[in-house]
Amino acid sequence: MIKSELVQIVGARNPHLYHRDVENIVNAILDEISDALAEGNRVELRGFGAFSVKNRPSRSGRNPRTGETVFVDEKWVPFFKTGKELRERLNPDQRVE
Amino acid sequence: MSGNTVTRADLAEAVFRKVGLSRSESASLVEMVIEEICNAIVRGESVKLSSFATFQVRDKTERVGRNPKTGEEVPISPRRVMTFKASNVLKQKVLDAHRDRLGPLDETRAAE
């Protein structure tokens, strides 16, 4: 499913809304999550999961081709942890810890 | 890190502010969007939201795990897991914002 298909599905459930509105709604949601992560905040959506930012400290890496040591600067990366409910829906026949 | 937690209520507020629907309709649309993303994932579809992220479902085969407390070996049953891959746009945005706010690496933070 790509974004335009998501817009279509949500639009079909809301025939009173313009296609444009639904597009704006989906974008407003995704932008709000992105902005929160940029600010270093967590986004917790029960039933789905939680978005957060993880810090990866600087390290000395190695160029695998030349074997040369290179300094890798510290970075911050977006992270997502799947929520319990979604994990259980993905595996209906077993109890997932 | 500021450490605030954003929830459904904040997303609904953003929809209310930016799109101009009522507060209650904004909340119900946030719910529907999350629900339809989850439904697609549960159907086994990958969900690609351009300039945001991709969610993918992977099948894991059975493997042997170990209880870290007792050292006991236990089989981990085959299962479906979801993977999240942030788009380059999102990764860059998060990185730039943190670098701007926290500045270049310095010894005080390196020592943390």
From TrEMBL, chain A:
Coiled-coil positions: none
Gene: ihfB
Chain's role: This protein is one of the two subunits of integration host factor, a specific DNA-binding protein that functions in genetic recombination as well as in transcriptional and translational control.
Protein name, per record: Integration host factor subunit beta
InterPro entries from the UniProt entry: Hist_DNA-bd (IPR000119), Histone-like_DNA-bd_CS (IPR020816), IHF-like_DNA-bd_dom_sf (IPR010992), IHF_beta (IPR005685)
Keyword Transcription regulation: yes
Electron transport recorded as keyword: no
GO-annotated biological processes: DNA recombination; regulation of DNA-templated transcription; regulation of translation
Family according to the record: Belongs to the bacterial histone-like protein family.
Keywords of this entry: DNA recombination, DNA-binding, Transcription, Transcription regulation, Translation regulation
Summary of subunit composition and partner proteins: Heterodimer of an alpha and a beta chain.
GO molecular function per UniProt: DNA binding; structural constituent of chromatin
Highest classification ranks of the organism: Bacteria, Pseudomonadati, Pseudomonadota, Alphaproteobacteria, Hyphomicrobiales
Superkingdom assignment: Bacteria
GO cellular component: chromosome; cytosol
UniProtKB/TrEMBL annotation, chain B:
CDD domains linked: IHF_A
Task performed by this protein: This protein is one of the two subunits of integration host factor, a specific DNA-binding protein that functions in genetic recombination as well as in transcriptional and translational control.
Native organism taxonomy: Bacteria, Pseudomonadati, Pseudomonadota, Alphaproteobacteria, Hyphomicrobiales
Short name of one Pfam family: Bac_DNA_binding
Top-rank taxon: Bacteria
Keywords: DNA recombination, DNA-binding, Transcription, Transcription regulation, Translation regulation
Molecular functions (GO terms): DNA binding; structural constituent of chromatin
A GO CC term assigned to this protein in UniProt: cytosol
Family: Belongs to the bacterial histone-like protein family.
UniProt protein name: Integration host factor subunit alpha
Gene Ontology terms describing biological process: DNA recombination; positive regulation of metabolic process; regulation of DNA-templated transcription; regulation of translation
Keyword Iron: no
Assembly with partners or alone: Heterodimer of an alpha and a beta chain.
